[in-house]
Amino acid sequence: MSFRVAVGGISHETNTYCKEQTQLNDFVIWRGEEIMANSRGVRSYLGGMLQGAAQLGACVVPTFFARATPSGTIAAPAYQAMRGELLAGVEAALPLDAVALSLHGAGVVDGTDDLEADLCQAVRDLVGPEVKIVVSLDLHGNVTQAMVDAADICYGVHHYPHTDGYERGQEAVAAIPSLLNGEWKPISHVQHLPMLVPAAPTAVHPAKTVNELCWAAEKRPGVLDCTFFHGFPYTDTPQVGAMVMVTANNERALARQVAADIAAWIWEHREDFRRGTLTPAEAIAQALTIEAGPVVINDTADNPGGGAPGDGTHVLRALLEAGLDRTCYGFIADPESAEQAHAAGVGRQVRLTLGGKYDDFHGAPLELEAYVKCLTDGRFILSTPQGRGSQVDLGKMARLVVGGVDILVGSVRNQVLDPEVFLLHGIDVTRYRIVALKSSAHFRGGFQDIARAIVTADSPGLTTLDVSHFTRRRTPRPIWPLDPTT
Amino acid sequence: MSRRFAIGQISHETNTFSPIRTELRHFGERGFLQGEELLRHFAQTKTGLGGYIDFARETGAELIPTLSASAVPSGYVAAEAHQALVTKLLDGIQAAGKIDGVLLCLHGAMVAEGIPDAEGDILGRVRRLVGPRVPVVATLDYHATVTDRMVSEADGLFGYNTYPHVDGYERALEAAAFITNLADGRIKPVHEVIRPPLAPGVVPARTGWGPIKKLMEQAFAYEAQAGVINVSVYGGFVYSDIHDAGLAFLATTDDDPALAKSIVEDLARRAWEMRHEFVTEMQEPVQAVRHAMQAAAGPVVLADVADNTGGGASGDGTEVLRALLDQGAKDAVVITIPDPEAVELAFRAGVGGEFRGLVGGKIDDAHGPPVEVVGKVRLLSDGRFVNYGPMGTGTVANIGRTAVLVSDGVEIIVNERRFQPVDPEAARAVGIDPAKRKIVVLKSAVHYRASYEPMAAEIVEVDGPGLASPNLSRFRFQNIRRPIFPIDLDCDWRPA
Known about the structure:
Chain A is of the alpha/beta class. Helix content of chain A is 28%, strand content 24%. The longest helix of chain A has 18 residues, at 76-93. By secondary structure, chain B is an alpha/beta fold. Chain B has helices at residues 24-29, 35-42, 48-59, 79-95, 118-130, 148-153, 168-183, 210-223, 257-273, 285-294, 319-326, 340-349, 425-428, 449-452, and strands spanning 4-11, 32-34, 62-70, 101-106, 136-140, 156-159, 189-194, 228-234, 248-254, 300-303, 332-338, 354-359, 371-381, 384-386, 396-398, 402-407, 410-415, 439-442, 458-461.
């Protein structure tokens, strides 16, 4: 069955603790054919949607897609502009059988706590009740009942690292024929949990165990989908927290029951989600107990992929103080220092005030003298399953050497997902003893096969594992692990 | 009481056709090391000197470092450079005081102005200094020209068994074990060398393939016999146009001259019978690039064997690069074009800047004219990296300032110093993983095979212009003994 589907979306993970609002020019925006050109063959949500449509022989109308590196609350005018453009694109594409949206789930706009509910409802109001709306979501979404009610069916990624965005995009589009022919009449139920879950990789318990429960539930007759959303704890809104979303075929009671059962299991095992943490110095000491490298130390508290500035210095300072050799660090986002390194030139010594410029929370700037080993344009292509094939552009970059530590400096803040940014600068991470990087869990997709061990360093920062660190004004209380719960 | 050995290295492969006169400063480029610095530099490396150092550590012998000097292959070594190097070596040995032997790493195909047999000269002068009773032992490159003088001046010579040269370390261990036995009076070595009239190009004379593979196997079989100490097969270096250039076989036995003689005569006879296998077919640059572009999978390695810096060619040859640009090749990388002028231009443009200029073809006119390159500067680097091996694992390379230029689908690595890109680190160090490229152009004849064969979908040897071309009809020989095969294809020979 052939059908006509509009594709688009607005995707943002909002860390409401960032001091600055996210403006329109912080977004990368693709219009029409740009969506196709940037997504075809790429392992992303949109890449999967396009592939799903191609397999079904569907006619795709690319509309508008915007995404930004996680950052602060989205400024209202920025959201209104993007929302308007997306709706205009969908309207221009009418008549349609379906709309496929790539969203996040944790978008917060100044004055609109639930970006996705607002956007899905606006699309519904525009296209009417008959046109099917399918949505892909991130498992860090703070997903609400309003959001899923406005859509026909939503799919969240199962994995953290999000290696299955492509598959979920494909699945969302593949659902459209069953929705159109009436075979599926999905009813979704969102069961909230009063929990703030710190980064929980799905390769290990407890997130792994919950996924297994969800997959078992999906085998039950009548259950179309069952997904555990970890939620995004660095959000101070009424809907923050973990949740289980179950979609059943026209059986509300079944959806409720399955969601309640899995939620109960999670609640019972909530202490398993508590992460023991190591300071940067402790993490380094632990890494040094492992004979052979590379040992990956992930600087989880300054993860630009969760809204942190990416110029934090706590971990790098500890590495330099430890007097290590065969160590590399990727990377400090500091356009000023990158520019200074380019101005000084390859082979020169340069005096820098590196990083720590965004705020005091992520560590003071490092005053250092560094050797400029290599300069690049910061452009490379991802190799990790999460987004393989995507072009990355980090602006002017430099590889600096201080003692036995190679330090990468970039001009654009970004999470390190795979070894490509190191290779770009001539660093083969497999030869290093310690590879330190800014990421909470996504790096595992690109490093788990080459890392001898992974050690997480926590410190003050906008994505610290210590979710109790933040002032909560609007978060519903009591909530685990902040409050005594029973 | 622990034994004391002086160690040292002077190494140059001289391509007498190259217009680049090899001066003392050229030896400085690749490290000019003396004293403790020599030991520090080579400790834990898989090199000849690294082998001597490990031998000493394991046996408790004391090493007196004298000099290590080596230069990228190029033209005649200047007379004064040769004199200065030998003087430093001799001074180091003299200063060592009473020693139990001298362990050297030499090449064997060095030619100095006025001294065709430079290693014969070095060994002779070491011998005169230490006298007849102190053993003098050396490792030699597989591409050595083994002369009678070298054999008579040294107590033992140990040639690499491999090309790519991955056994310099092991041969040094063998040489060190030999000198120990000799000093202990456990052996009485005698030598026999033979040089049949055979001087193949270095490419068809690579080990692990064809006639040399069979000869090596035979040599190893002889080495396993009682009374045989060492049998070395030398591929020789035909681009060193001296009288004795070409294949050589050297056998060392324990006081059995007749056995040594019969071994080398048998090997020479076998080599002669297989001589026609030393003549190979290759593809012209344009044809080779077209072939690579049409290949289903990469990387296709285009070995620009004629422009092998390791054989004394300039390395800045342009014919393969020109063919890539002309045919609009995609996903291709050229490793490397040494061109300080282009590097300077790239550094001035800066990362992300436009590059427009002539690249390569500037060192001499034997390797194609410069190519006009229009592109962008992707990366700038200091050109220092550590070789991963298997050849020279752990050694530090400094190829001078380096830039990556991108012109459509072609990445061109330009750097300041001539060197042979035997190790993929030369590309990885500037952010390019050659395993992920469709077409990889290398300025190397054979050495690249040690590291590139495992990753290459296909290897194509290119018959471009260059001073290391296996196509010997491109050269005018003046000193090599004649007739000699395959320069003289119809010559005849019978072993005595």
